[in-house]
Amino acid sequence: MTKTPEYYSFHHIKGRILNSKDPAYKDYGGRGLNMDNRYLGKNGFTNFLKDVGKKPDKKMSIERIDNGKGYIRGNIRWATPREQARNRRSNHLLTFKGETKIVTEWAEKFGIKPKTLLQRINEYNWSTEKALTTPVRHTSRIFT
Questions:
Q1: pLDDT at 39
Q2: The pairing of beta strand 76-79 with beta strand 93-96
């Protein structure tokens, strides 16, 4: 059998979920994440490939849609590096008008730097609404 990019992804998932000696185990299997039983048996890789399909682009990698759940059917997909970065556990989430997004997405939507948005909330103790909707003052410094 030729080892495809999809197979390597599958193999690495199994390692970080099932092998306590894998360097990434503590962040995956060690924190209780699991792998769908469909992926563990004789036809595990075949079932995995049916569920996620071929890797659409060499820059993409497998990700869990909900980071609180394991590598289970319906919770895995191929994602770009940008999508992966926006789906990290370490991202700060903000809810505004009933919608939850990461700080970076809100900052882009409102034309604010993420650092400025976090500063307004964490250092100045502004409400999410005030932090998002207050225009950024652009000051210029003229030196004479």
A1: 96
A2: unpaired
Q: Inter-axis angle of helices 5-18 and 44-52, to 10 degrees?
A: 110
What are the strands, taking DSSP E only, across 2-103? Answer: 61-64, 76-79, 93-96, 99-102
Which amino acid is residue 124, in one-letter code? Answer: Y
Determine contact, residues 106/117, Cβ cutoff 8 Å. yes
What are the phi and psi torsion angles at 65 (to 5°)? -65, -45
**For residue 67, what pLDDT band results from cuts at 50, 70 and 90?**
confident
pLDDT exceeds 80 at position 141: no
94 phi and psi angles, rounded to 5 deg: -125, 140
Do residues 69 and 33 touch, judged by C-beta distance below 8 A?
yes
Structural domain spans, the chain: 5-85, 93-133
**Strand blocks (E) in the chain:** 61-64, 76-79, 93-96, 99-102
Who contacts 64 (Cβ-Cβ below 8 Å, separation ≥6)? 33, 70, 71, 75, 76, 87
